[in-house]
Amino acid sequence: MTPVYIVLTLLLISFASLASTLLLSLKKNVHELVLYLVAFAAGTMLGGSFLHLLPEAVAKMSVDRVFVTLLVSFVLFFLLEKLILCRHCSDGNNHEHPLGYLNLIGDGVHNFLDGLIVAGAFLTSPILGLTVSLAVLFHEVPHKLGDFGILLHAGFSKRKAILMSFMFSMTAVLGGLIGYLIGESAISLEAYFLPLAAGGFIYIAGSDLIPELNKETQHLKSLLQLVLFVLGLLFIYSLRLQ
Hints:
Layout: H1 2-25, H2 34-60, H3 63-91, H4 98-124, H5 126-153, H6 158-169, H7 171-182, H8 186-213, H9 219-241
């Protein structure tokens, strides 16, 4: 029954995230909130990378491997953005900003990692599996709200943003099944996915999100963005203390 528990738990987490995104999309002024969601997302991305993913990676493998993998991930996301930009510019049509697709890829890697972690917890004990699943849920819902804001800011329609976000959340189920099938070997695989996800998040936050926030010149709006950015960091830090 263990694989059934893993899949059902990860599906519930994905649907809970979907429900929160759907509720947010019903707000009439959601587009006015987009840059504030982007600010919160930037905080959670950087906080998740430096306070959660990288410390976990260092605990599982050598520091040299962690930072080499982190650098490789950063370069890969840079190349991906260049490739998407070149493709979009060559056909002369208007498209969504590459930021949206980069965010989906980074989120897919992160969700796959969540699946591996949940599977490893359930393989240890059902109680630990449920505990870890709750922690993932508490992190995933606000993270998905931030992702929704990023996709809207990148030019996605509400419908496409919700659909694509949910589709990429399904990589968690794939990660859970693979984690169950390979058992203890999932630990070594998880170690490499930690800095891979961190590299993607650092690239997206540093090259796309924060520069976009810096375009705001109104003092009050800038202050609110800063507050939400710090709240994103503090939210991740609070999860780390649990």
